[in-house]
Specification:
It is a single chain. Among the domains are: 70 residues, no CATH class; 71 residues. 66% of the residues lie in helices and 4% in strands. Strands 1-2 form a two-stranded antiparallel ribbon. Helix 6 packs across helix 9. Pfam families: RMD1-3.
């Protein structure tokens, strides 16, 4: 439906200004019939010409906002395509051109792309540090623009965690509750986001095997230091897998690793085999493949080979 109502007129003044129609033009008294042919019988509707012109006036008034909306959606679609294609550099350059947009959807994507740039093997140490802090600022701005954007919460948590790598164990532990709370908020806003569940599983796993000296530091910072268990971590990894099976090679790896910690070798072997045979499409997938070298002795004990047999697994 184009929203045109038969018999609805607008003033000649409006039409003449918008379309340069002469006051005495013979266009005014005419009516037309439009045949709507879409695989059904033609429906002939008598519509005053000015009704169509009125609709066009409306379209022209709305055009600028429509163009902006289309431009926004096209840019976001292009950004998501580049991300899914692992075109890290192109994605970063695209979003960097729009860094001043007052839009949470652009800002969290820029935070993600900036972080990905920091993780490239050809990034120098100084540049990496700069990008880590920039990604955190982008995520923070996204959150300020839209508190109900689940992805802003997720990427703020991820980028804040990265900051701890440069500011020491006290800061990292001090931010731990903030990170957990934002991940929980992301899941609350989008219960279908497997990535947030996976990262919260990582949070639980990390505190389940926190070294004794870091526990002492945590006890100084908090009256009740953060703690968790392998069972809690496993629950989040399994929930993530249930929501989106095979979405991430690292989730498969963490499932296998967690079962190893819990001494369930049969399930550990099943998940580690899936992770090993996951075709690497991103930089992180490649990192997961390299991690298998550190598991080599355990893989042999489980009766697993170390050579991957790639399957057509959903990415």
């Amino acid at each position: 439906s184009c929203g045109v109502t038969a018999g609805k007129y607008i003033s000649h003044t409006v039409v003449s200004k918008c379309f340069n129609v002469n006051k005495n033009s013979s266009i005014l008294p005419f009516k037309i019939s439009i045949g709507l042919l879409f695989g059904r019988a033609a429906i002939l509707i008598g519509i005053p010409t000015l009704s169509l012109l009125g609709h066009e006036v409306y379209q022209r008034v709305q055009r600028s906002s429509v163009v902006l909306a289309l431009e926004r959606e096209e840019l976001l679609e292009q950004a998501d395509y580049l991300y899914s294609s692992a075109e890290t550099e192109k994605l970063y350059q695209l979003l960097l051109q729009h860094k001043d947009r007052d839009d949470a959807e652009f800002l969290w994507r820029l935070a993600r792309a900036t972080r990905d740039m920091s993780r490239r093997p050809d990034t120098t140490a100084d540049k990496k540090k700069q990008l880590v802090y920039e990604s955190n600022e982008c995520a923070k701005k996204a959150l300020e623009k839209d508190e109900k954007c689940f992805a802003a919460h997720k990427w703020f948590a991820i980028c804040l965690s990265d900051i701890g790598d440069y500011e020491g164990i006290k800061v990292k532990l001090g931010n731990s509750y903030i990170i957990r709370d934002h991940l929980q908020r992301a899941i609350e806003l989008n219960p279908k986001d497997a990535t947030s569940m996976h990262i919260l599983g990582i949070w639980c796993f990390s505190f389940a095997e926190l070294p004794w000296y870091q526990r002492k530091v945590a006890a100084v910072i908090f009256a009740s230091p953060p703690e968790s268990s392998y069972e809690e971590a496993l629950d989040y990894f399994l929930k993530a897998e249930a929501v989106d099976p095979n979405f991430y090679s690292k989730n498969l790896l963490m499932l296998g690793t967690t079962y190893l910690r819990m001494n369930d070798k049969e399930k550990a072997k099943m998940w580690l085999t899936k992770a090993k045979d996951y075709r690497p499409l991103t930089l992180e997938d490649q990192e997961v493949q390299h991690l298998f070298m550190t598991f080599k002795a355990q893989l042999v004990q489980l009766g697993m080979g170390t050579k991957p047999r790639y399957h057509n697994i959903k990415h």
